[in-house]
Design a protein that fits this description.
The chain is α/β, with parallel strands linked by helices. It has helices spanning 11-22, 47-54, 107-120, 144-157, 171-176, 192-199, 215-227, 255-262, 271-275, 281-290, 317-333, and strands at residues 2-5, 28-30, 38-41, 59-63, 83-85, 88-90, 94-100, 124-126, 161-164, 181-184, 204-208, 233-237, 267-269, 295-299, 337-338. It contains eleven helices and 15 strands. The radius of gyration is 22 Å and the shape is elongated.
């Protein structure tokens, strides 16, 4: 249950109300919202106490969450929350672009990609150091050395970084290398031990939807993070597994307007893992922003054919520049703006000839 108190309720009366509830052995949380006091009760209330609270002089509204979550419910904030990733604000009235290679492959390559990402006007540099691969023989990442290379590249161009953490035992390495945002991948969305450990780090978290997870399961996983003290959570839709095999997964954009009703958390979209086909990513990115996403996360590689993982879904640097430009237009159409970013450049003359932009693929009817 969420108790939305009257605007201007004095702190001492808020505390007295919480003390009354906690005196019954129930747990309460106070929203960081400054516009009005909001109290969440995360345990089931006896009927008599529920009626008492509903009639309390300081309670303006009683809201029952949509599902098994309370702290991430939309009613727990007056406005949608905004998450800080380094100097980048995710959520609110701005749209961001996260970009980088699927895997960190070496310092020179990482520095090159970082420059391309910055020059394209993107906001956060991504790169996998620990890679969850379906096959044990596939490239598993460079580990801690990959984190160092990613952070060094990000610092060199002034971009915050995000990378996936797979094991709670690796958390000290992520903190030692000052990774700005910790990504929980689709396969670990319900790794509750990992969620609890990451929540305790008090750092921004990017929580990807599991490949077969319902929205309810996804938001309840986010509740684990919030319950552990992490109020800097970003949701990421990355496609779900369905019967359709024309693309890698099925991008579920129908949930974006729904999530705006159910949660205050910002939501971004990863179209690369959804479709697995580079040429489809720009259209899906435009659709994601149009449907209300706070940003997109895409993969970029200067030589996708040599990438050690997920080359077919990696954009070329010039394609990333165009995607960012289109995101700026799409954000404006939806009444928002692209987040300011350093070094935004237009595609250089001759970019296609230089291999920076993929040649258009034309199909003729048979």
């Amino acid at each position: 249950m969420i108790l939305r108190l009257e605007v201007g309720t004095p702190p001492e009366r808020v505390q007295a109300l919480r003390a009354r509830i906690e005196g019954e052995g129930l747990r309460t949380f106070l929203s960081p919202e400054s516009a009005r006091p909001i109290v969440a009760v995360v345990d089931a209330l006896p009927g008599s106490l529920a009626s008492e609270l509903a009639a309390h002089q300081d309670v303006a509204e009683v809201v029952r969450p949509h599902g098994g979550w309370t702290l991430v419910d939309r009613a727990f904030r007056e406005r949608p929350s905004v998450v800080a990733v380094g100097g980048v604000r995710v959520g609110g009235d701005q749209v961001i672009v996260i970009a980088g290679p699927c895997s960190v492959e070496g310092p020179e390559m990482m520095r090159e990609v970082a420059r391309r990402v910055r020059d394209a006007g993107a906001h956060v540099l991504r790169g996998g150091a620990f890679k969850p691969r379906t096959s044990p023989w596939a490239f598993q990442g460079l580990g801690v050395e990959g984190l160092r290379q990613l952070k060094d590249a990000g610092q060199a161009v002034g971009l915050p970084v995000v990378s996936e953490i797979m094991d709670a035992a690796d958390l000290p390495a992520f903190l030692d290398h000052d990774v700005d945002c910790l990504q929980i991948g689709a396969r670990n969305m319900q790794n509750f031990t990992l969620l609890k450990a990451v929540a305790g780090a008090r750092r921004a978290v990017l929580l990807k939807r599991g490949m077969s997870a319902t929205v309810e399961e996804w938001l309840t996983a986010a509740e684990y993070l919030a319950a552990g003290g992490c109020d800097q959570v970003i949701l990421c839709e990355r496609g779900i597994r369905t019967f359709e095999r024309a693309t890698r997964n099925t991008l579920d954009l129908t949930i974006l307007p729904l999530l705006s009703e159910w949660t205050h958390l910002p939501v971004i979209v990863d179209p690369a893992h959804a479709c697995g086909i580079a040429r489809l990513i720009p259209a899906l990115s435009r659709a994601a922003v149009a449907a209300g996403a706070c940003g997109v996360a895409v993969e970029v590689h200067p030589r996708p054919e040599t990438a050690r993982s997920d080359g077919p879904q990696a954009l070329l640097p010039g394609e990333l520049t165009q995607l960012v430009a289109e995101a700026r237009v799409q954000a404006a159409v939806t009444g928002r703006a692209l987040h300011p970013a350093p070094g935004a450049l237009a595609p250089p003359p001759g970019a296609r000839a230089a291999g920076l932009v993929r040649a258009p693929r034309v199909r003729f009817p048979s």
